[in-house]
Amino acid sequence: MDTKRAEELKVLANEAFKGNKYNQAIDLYTQAIEINSQNGVYYANRAFAHTKLEEYGSAIQDATKAIEVDPKYSKGYYRRGAAYLAMGKFKDALKDFQQVKKICPNDPDATKKLKECEKAVMKLKFEEAIAVHGSEKCSVAESIDFHTIEVEPQYTGARIEGEVLTLDFVKKMLDDFKNQKSLHRRYAYQIVLQTREMLRALPSLVDVSIAEGKHFTVCGDVHGQFYDLLNIFELNGLPSEDNPYLFNGDFVDRGSFSLEVILTLFAFKCMSPSGIHLARGNHESKNMNKIYGFEGEVKSKLSEAFIELFAEVFCCLPLAHVLNGKVFIVHGGLFSVDGVKLSDIRKIDRFCEPPEEGLMCELLWSDPQPLPGRGPSKRGVGLSFGGDVTKRFLQENNLDLVVRSHEVKDEGYEIEHDGKLITVFSAPNYCDQMGNKGAYIRFEAPDMKPNIVTFSSVPHPDVKPMAYANNFLRMFS
């Protein structure tokens, strides 16, 4: 066994990790493991790189392997606990941090993190105890009348006159947001409530028709990167009936301008219902928003009342779109079983928080894999599906192409599965550290061939990503 070579590979992997080249780091740690599979450090380090890529399922597998190799290796438990935490599995995380404390009883950092974890679990238990379930639950939206909210005389921001949102209002709002000014909560309520009414009326699978000679733009994850969203509009024009868009989920979380992003997208939806289409992503959910920043941001910039309102509206977002009967667009991916028809997606009762399994979960969470068949999800939710799965789904539904988002890509996009699947991701330099480009796809009728446009990130005010995220999570990132 060439342990010296394995150590050299580990050093190279560590350097790649420091340079935010996480995929490269994973490849190098893998090579080290192939030479010496009995070194827990290699697995724990690879787990950390997986965590950075949001591949929490793979991180848990690696950390578990590190623990199997050395049951007294505290960093194995630490890495697994951090991955559980990132998935919102606080109780599983607590068990691992208790083990870290047991192995390192005098480590002040381990003590601090265990206490924070215990607090998070206690809070979760309290929230579960007071939660109202099912039919007892009243709609927050239906209890709000925005007309009764007074706008103070000193307010100088954008105003909606009456019930109709105009382009002038939206442009003024965007300018205010650009200058880090807030929108009055009266108008924020109006935008969110009007959007809710529109979204509730839509089916779970929306069919979009694009007339001959007309075009349609599909964007992937934006993740609270408001200034990059403005750049998309600079490059490709504002949403309108003549310049329609689909934003394919994950509008919020991670980036610290998520409120500005969601109000912008919702305002355009109110102004021009056919000019912008919105799909649900896995981050349009209470669990993710609690951990990754949107809940904290809404609380800070508007009020706690809006948190539940946004959660309600996110449950109204459609799950998938089909363009001209040929292009299937979904945030995550395909399914754990063959034979799923578009009619099955139309029948999904989407007005709920995403379940942990089933068609809705898979639409929001799944990822493509290079190998045929199906495999476990690297995220720990959903599954991985191969090119044969994509091909059968397209054939069975008389479709030509799957477009999905959900994964950061170096070039802003990736074409896989013999050209039958495209991932598009529209948050360049994701989290201010990945160095990736963003992309969007323009389709033109009638041929509906994808024309991919890439772009780089633009400067934004000095507010770090995850600024409003769960404090506990930030301790481990």
Q: Please count the helical segments.
A: 18
Strand content: 5-15%
Radius of gyration: 23 Å
* Alpha-carbon distance between the two ends: 34 Å
Round the mean pLDDT to the nearest integer and report it.
95
Poorly predicted runs are: none
Q: Sum up the overall morphology in one term.
A: globular
Descriptive notes:
It contains 18 helices and 14 strands. The strands form 3 sheets. The chain has a 6-stranded mixed beta sheet. Strands 4-3-2-13-14 form a 5-stranded mixed beta sheet, with helices on one face. Strands 7-9-8 form a 3-stranded mixed beta sheet. With 477 residues, the chain is of the alpha/beta class. It is globular and about 70 Å long.
Topology of this protein?
Elements: H1 3-18, H2 22-35, H3 40-52, H4 56-69, H5 74-86, H6 90-103, H7 108-130, H8 167-178, H9 185-200, E1 205-208, E2 215-219, H10 226-236, E3 245-247, H11 258-271, E4 276-278, H12 286-292, H13 294-301, H14 305-314, E5 320-323, E6 327-330, H15 342-346, H16 359-365, E7 367-368, E8 374-376, E9 383-385, H17 387-396, E10 401-404, E11 413-416, E12 421-424, E13 438-444, E14 450-455, H18 471-474
Parallel strand pairs: 1-5, 2-3, 3-4, 6-10, 7-9, 10-12
Antiparallel strand pairs: 2-13, 5-6, 8-9, 11-12, 13-14
